């Protein structure tokens, strides 16, 4: 994430130099997007931009969060019923990101004390997509509701993919629901 911030800062600096051909970019039209853990990375990058000196230069127009990988130790909703899948997701996280905070690490749990304040989110809009067969769906709804009620001044949108599971569009990109998801994301970006 630090590399992404450094790259962005470098591009902005180069664009301002008179003796260098400008990079064809508009810092007023920045969108971030990510699937699963990539959605978490996009969100955390937006928080870091806000806290950095780049936060004064521009604001991200939007973040597309496709099936974000949010999680926490205490189960909610369907997580309380499907204990086997809850245990599996817990283990995935601990394998991918060993942490003494376990599933309450701020990178995966946006609601722990050490996490970023949602009001400080540096973007105008967020699209959160939910797959209704995904065990992560209830934490997404929880996040969406918290974001809407947080005092953040942006616009939050939500899209549910009925009958689908986590990142289904990656495994079956030609299905109608994957095409619909991509069309919705394209409309959000435009």
Question: Could you explain how this protein is built, in words?
Answer:
The protein has 190 residues and is an alpha/beta fold. It has a single domain (30-189), classed as Rossmann fold. Helices cover 39% and strands 15% of the residues. The protein is built from six helices and four strands; from the N terminus they run H-E-H-E-H-E-H-E-H-H. Helix 4 links the parallel strand 3 and strand 4. The longest helix has 15 residues, at 2-16. The mean pLDDT is 84.
Would you tell me the overall average pLDDT?
Answer: 84
The CATH class is Alpha Beta
Give the % helix: 25-40%
Helix count equals 6
Quick one: biggest sheet? 4 strands, parallel
Strand content: 5-15%
CATH fold name: Rossmann fold
What is the terminal-to-terminal distance? 25 Å
The CATH superfamily name is Alpha/Beta hydrolase fold, catalytic domain
Q: How many beta strands in the DSSP annotation?
A: 4
């Amino acid at each position: 994430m630090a590399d992404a911030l450094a790259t962005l800062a470098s591009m902005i600096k180069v664009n301002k130099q008179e003796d260098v051909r400008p990079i064809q970019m508009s810092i007023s039209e920045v969108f971030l997007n990510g699937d699963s853990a990539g959605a978490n990375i996009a969100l955390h990058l937006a928080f870091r931009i806000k806290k950095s000196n780049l936060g004064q230069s521009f604001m991200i127009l939007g973040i597309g969060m496709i099936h974000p990988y949010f999680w926490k130790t205490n189960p909610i909703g369907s997580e309380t019923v499907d204990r086997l899948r809850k245990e599996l997701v817990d283990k995935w996280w601990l394998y991918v990101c060993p942490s003494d905070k376990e599933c309450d690490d701020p990178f995966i749990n946006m609601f722990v004390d050490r996490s970023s304040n949602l009001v400080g989110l540096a973007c105008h809009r967020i699209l959160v997509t939910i797959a209704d067969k995904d065990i992560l769906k209830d934490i997404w709804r929880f996040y969406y509701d918290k974001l809407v009620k947080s005092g953040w001044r942006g616009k939050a949108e939500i899209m549910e993919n009925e009958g689908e599971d986590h990142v289904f569009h990656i495994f079956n990109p030609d299905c109608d629901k994957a095409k619909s998801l991509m069309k919705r994301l394209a409309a959000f970006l435009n």
